[in-house]
From TrEMBL, chain A:
<protein>
    <submittedName>
        <fullName>NitT/TauT family transport system permease protein</fullName>
    </submittedName>
</protein>
<feature type="transmembrane region" description="Helical">
    <location>
        <begin position="93"/>
        <end position="115"/>
    </location>
</feature>
<keyword id="KW-0812">Transmembrane</keyword>
<keyword id="KW-0472">Membrane</keyword>
<feature type="transmembrane region" description="Helical">
    <location>
        <begin position="217"/>
        <end position="239"/>
    </location>
</feature>
<keyword id="KW-0813">Transport</keyword>
<keyword id="KW-1133">Transmembrane helix</keyword>
<dbReference type="InterPro" id="IPR000515">
    <property type="entry name" value="MetI-like"/>
</dbReference>
<dbReference type="Pfam" id="PF00528">
    <property type="entry name" value="BPD_transp_1"/>
</dbReference>
From TrEMBL, chain B:
<keyword id="KW-0067">ATP-binding</keyword>
<dbReference type="GO" id="GO:0016887">
    <property type="term" value="F:ATP hydrolysis activity"/>
</dbReference>
<keyword id="KW-0547">Nucleotide-binding</keyword>
<dbReference type="InterPro" id="IPR003593">
    <property type="entry name" value="AAA+_ATPase"/>
</dbReference>
<dbReference type="InterPro" id="IPR017871">
    <property type="entry name" value="ABC_transporter-like_CS"/>
</dbReference>
<dbReference type="InterPro" id="IPR050166">
    <property type="entry name" value="ABC_transporter_ATP-bind"/>
</dbReference>
<feature type="domain" description="ABC transporter">
    <location>
        <begin position="6"/>
        <end position="238"/>
    </location>
</feature>
<dbReference type="Pfam" id="PF00005">
    <property type="entry name" value="ABC_tran"/>
</dbReference>
<dbReference type="GO" id="GO:0005524">
    <property type="term" value="F:ATP binding"/>
</dbReference>
Amino acid sequence: MRFKIISGSGIILVLAVWAFITYTGMVGSLFLPTPTAVILEARKQIEDGIFFQDIWISFYRILIGFLLATLFALPIGVMMGTSKTWKAFWEPIVGFVRYMPVVAFIPLSILWFGTSDMQKFFIIFFGVFFQQVIMIADNCKTVKKSVVEVGLTLGLNRLEVIKDIVVKAAMPSIWDTLRTVWGWAWTYLVVAELVAATSGLGFRIMQAQRYLSTETIILGILTIGLLGLITDTIFGLLAKMMFPWHEKEKINN
Amino acid sequence: MNEHLLTATNINRIFVSKQRSFTALDNINLTIGNHEFVSLLGPSGCGKSTFLRLVAGLDSASSGSLQMNGSILDKPGRDRGVVFQQYSLLPWLLAWQNVAFALKKEKNMRSAEKKELAYHFLDLVGLKGFEEIYPSQMSGGMQQRVAIARALVIKPPLLLMDEPFGALDAQTRRDMQDLLVTIFKETRSSVLFVTHDVDEAIYLSDRVYIMATNPGRIAKQIDIHLSDDKDWSIQLSEPFINYKKEILMELKQQKKNVHQSK
């Protein structure tokens, strides 16, 4: 409870500063709109039906891109984390590509996919996949040798040890990896939408710039932050449900 | 004549790195009979755990032969149950699931049957009523009991225990030793037990191999003859004290040798 009050007061402080400098006219409304203007803008967008439409479109893009990346990254990451041969195969590719800034691929992606959803999937996939692979491989590598040996002495073969022990043991940290990378996926999505889109939260922000409608920009940014907060909370709640043993371990330590 | 369950002949284990090689085990010869409790006793670095890992199939000897019931041991198998020093339970499984996990390979056994068996073995190690909790909710002693139940549930002819009570406090340790004496009488498994505790080795074993360091080798073998119906009070008896004297003398002698050779 105490910490809830503390974290609440942090947000209130930021809001208070915002309200103070805008309502007093210290900062012109063109540069930073008042909270009232942003709320009115939100009401307008909701009435026009574009508010939830934008959210849904952006969320849909990120979800598909992220799921596709995870679908491939999970097995490859586990392979890399458990087999030297696979590590030798994947490491140069993954290590090389992951340092390429995904933003630099946007022009190329537009050439390939136009401004379609496919282009957004591609950018998100490209942005998170290689990071996921490296991080998931690391998650698997940190599984204690002793639990692996337990599996071996119980007569499990290599594949069974990986499936029934390594992956299970690494799952909470893999989940944390996904949670972290999900946050990055939001960034890539917005970047992709800022440059080439005809809908979505990033597009709305970009369009608002043209008309100097800063309240739309602020609303868009706040919405993205709020969505991030909500999905992050969901990740956390799911972790508690899926890994009750892990939560208990943390409390004990 | 007592058939030997395990026979180790001229076992060497040399760890080679770029700079130098290190002889962890030098010409180890030992046997374990059926229903025999054998301890490896020695200071840290004498290779006792290395030898146990060889028997478990988690490591391979550089030379020599290791046979169990006439067949060569070169990989882990369900004929040997292992209890490690760190409790090494699977933290995402409940106590009974940890025990039942050992039965994963029993394709013909129904899961209800596995659960029943797991409950039975948890009862055997004194954990009745604690079946449905996670390892993180247990004390070290409880975790080690679950680990023992897990090793026993597959009914292995040979139980390998690597300093299983090393991390426990003195009182829990004594309780666990008594538990092991009881279980050993019931299950009739053979045991290879690694320890650096002299009292523990004498109390539990039929035979103690005293090991020495650098290179790791067997310095002396002592057969222990104590009553089968022993309890802790035997540790105050004269024969027990005499064994203890003999072993401590031997360990002291080794220390002297090391100093002289330096």
